[in-house]
Amino acid sequence: MSxxxxxxxxxxxRRRRGLTWSAIADELGAPPVWTTAALLxxxxxxxxQAERACTLLGLEAxxxxxxxxxxxxxxxxxxxxxxxxxxxxxALSVYGPALKELIHEEFGDGIMSAINFRVDVARRPxxxxxxVVVTFDGKFLDYRx
Length: 145
Description:
Elements: H1 3-17, H2 21-28, H3 32-39, H4 47-57, H5 61-67, H6 83-107, E1 110-124, E2 131-142
């Protein structure tokens, strides 16, 4: 079974069972954003995690096998036009050069790792409407010559 087919079954089962991504993450003992990405096919789960997820979601062993496979990471180009995903692209288009300058000023010549990386999503109440807070937390990797 392909990882995309497994992801579709996971999403349908999660909705059918009325589970949140956070509840599934708690069951697996992993962060919610990582767990969601893994169940959507972007990370491999351990055998134990895959079996626990499939038991929780009532899914067959073939799904668990797929969830353990190494992914081909990335997003389908068609999904990039989704308004939520596109806003991240837009924000990085506008603020990416400034973030690069500020990272270099603070840390020197290097990059923020997306491998040794954590990401979190939170809600912050605001009188003008709740705010979405996305935190990228990546290890600094300096360029070495």
